[in-house]
Amino acid sequence: MDEDGLPLMGSGIDLTKVPAIQQKRTVAFLNQFVVHTVQFLNRFSAVCEEKLADLSLRIQQIETTLNILDAKLSSIPGLDDVTFEVSPLSVTNGLHSEPTSEQSQGVPVMAIRNKMISEGLDPDLLERPDAPVPDGESEKTAEESSDSESSFSD
Predict the structure, then answer these.
(1) pTM
(2) Three-state secondary structure readout of 30-89
């Protein structure tokens, strides 16, 4: 017994008389482990790819719907002067949260910047409203960049 009161496991066995582990059996266990692990990872990868494809399709559908809605709203004359108020509670991921100072002001600045970029306008104009109005050159470069971006998405 040791100082903890546990029995000592001595090497009372002569290891020279114990048969060796069969290599074929060890290789078989190792092969089985590798095969099952690879099968699991392949299934996991397939499920992840399927979920990502579904999510990508859903995002494309939402973008299309948003573009259609934007086009419909843009076609209505007189909506330029319309303002709206943000409700006291905003919904974020299904949870109610208190409005922040940015939310209570109206449309977030990042949303305006993103819209300006999508329309081919320079979002830095928000920082310097007294800057001269750009000529049509920026529209041409925006069309070229959107054409090059669409070639990557195919």
Answers:
(1) 0.38
(2) HHHHHHHHHHHHHHHHHHHHHHHHHHHHHHHHHHHHHHHHHHHHHCCCCHHHCCCCCCCC
Q: Cβ contacts of residue 5 below 8 Å, gap of 6+?
A: none
DSSP per-residue string spanning 96-109: EEPPPHHHHHSS-H
CA 140 to chain centre: 31
pLDDT in tens, 24-81: 999 999 999 999 999 999 999 999 999 999 999 999 999 999 999 888 888 887 777 7
Tell me the residue type at 49. Answer: E
pLDDT of residue 135: 65
**Contact residues for 145 (Cβ-Cβ < 8 A; gap 6+):** none
User: Which backbone phi and psi does 90 adopt, to 5 degrees?
Assistant: -110, 150
Q: Is 52 left (phi over 0), alpha (psi -120 to 50) or beta?
A: alpha
Cα 40 to Cα 33, 37, 44, 49, distances in angstroms: 11, 5, 6, 14
